[in-house]
Amino acid sequence: MDRLEITLDAEEIIRALSTFGDAAQPYVDAASDETADAIVTEAQARFSRSVTSRSGQTFAGIRKQRAPDGRGILVVSERDKFPNLPLWIEFGTKGPGLHLLPAWYYFYPAALLEEVPHLRRIEEALQDAADDHGLGE
Q1: Coil, strand or helix: which one is 101?
Q2: What is the DSSP letter of 41?
Q3: Higher-scoring residue by pLDDT: 2, 114
Q4: Per-residue pLDDT tens over the stretch 45-67
Q5: How far apart are CA 17 and CA 2, in angstroms?
Q6: Nearest CA to 30 among 115, 114, 124?
Q7: What does the pLDDT look like over 89-120, one tens digit per residue?
């Protein structure tokens, strides 16, 4: 015998894979929510240590929100009355006619600190979703 034949019915696995994205979304959302909370906490802490804010509005503008398409979570730093102020604080200002303001990095370092932990959380979330959806080991 120099031949081996295997026949399988892939219908069940194809069905599971075709619905996996929607099934995994709550797991990914939970992991992303944890990451967003960590970024907000760190960015607010860095902001508080670096910037003296009288109104507290820029600090309060560091928050998380659901992505417009509903799939994911964004961390934003916004200021209603002065929309560019968070950018000016983060990167500083320079140039003729501008007040020179040094950069006080608070937002991007907070996000970078969470890059590796977020990837781990997403990996674990996808594995949990796969296990619960019949696609695990």
Answers
A1: strand
A2: H
A3: 114
A4: 999 888 877 788 889 999 999 99
A5: 34
A6: 124
A7: 888 887 776 678 888 899 999 999 999 999 99
Contact 118, 31 (CB under 8 A): yes
CB-based contact 73:32 (threshold 8 Å)? yes
Rounded CA-CA distance 64/84 in Å is 18
Percent of the chain with pLDDT over 90: 48
Short-list 13, 25, 11, CA closest to 128: 25
Q: Mapping DSSP to helix (H, G, I), strand (E, B) and coil, where does residue 61 land?
A: coil
Strand 62-66, strand 73-77: pairing: antiparallel
| Residues with Cβ within 8 Å of residue 19, at least 6 apart in sequence | 133
What is the C-alpha to C-alpha distance for residues 49 and 18, in angstroms, rounded to an integer? 48
To the question of pTM greater than 0.90 for the whole model, the response is no
| Angstrom distance (rounded) from CA 50 to CA 8 | 62
First to last CA, the chain: 32
Report the distance separating Cα 128 and Cα 28, nearest Å.
10
Residue 75: what residue type? V
Question: How does 60-70 read in b/e, with b if 16+ C-beta sit within 10 Å?
Answer: ebbeeeeeeee
In whole angstroms, how far apart are CA 36 and each of 3, 71, 91? 54, 14, 21
